[in-house]
Write a structure and sequence with these properties.
121 residues, mainly alpha
Length: 121
């Protein structure tokens, strides 16, 4: 899997969605919804950058594919659920948001453990 490419694509998506949130949601979303959008974009941007770094670490054999998968799936669930609620999805979507957050945490912990062990795929 080309995690550097996926990280770069996530960066482009984050910038686009950030711009849309700043300009396209004016008058449509309330303050709370704009907050959700901002949080989703912040985490998407941060984890896209993280995936770029993890992609490099994978190529250097310092990290595993598992780390990248956990981060990617986590950010899709986390940010995706917040974006969906902002755009009108039911509030119960918020119940899956922490699952994404947990996957991101596990991804970073997995990177920590595997690099301390010197284990890579």
């Amino acid at each position: 899997m080309n995690w550097i490419g996926i990280g770069a694509l996530n960066m482009a998506i984050a910038v686009g969605l950030g711009a849309f949130g700043a300009h396209g949601l004016k008058g449509i979303a309330d303050e709370q919804q704009l907050g959700w959008w901002h949080t989703a974009t912040l985490y998407l941007l941060a984890h896209a950058l993280g995936l770029l770094i993890v992609g490099l670490l994978i190529r250097l054999n310092y990290a595993t594919q598992t780390t990248a998968w956990l981060l990617q799936v986590g950010v899709v669930i986390f940010a995706g659920s917040l974006y969906a609620m902002t755009l009108g999805a039911p509030r119960w979507f918020g119940a899956i948001t922490p699952i994404g957050g947990l996957l991101m945490i596990v991804g970073w912990v997995w990177l920590t453990v595997t690099t301390f062990r010197g284990v890579a795929n």
